[in-house]
Amino acid sequence: MEQKEKLILMRDTCNGKTHLATVLGMGAYLLGKSVLFTNIPNLVIELKESTSAN
Question: How many domains does the chain have?
Answer without folding.
Answer: 1
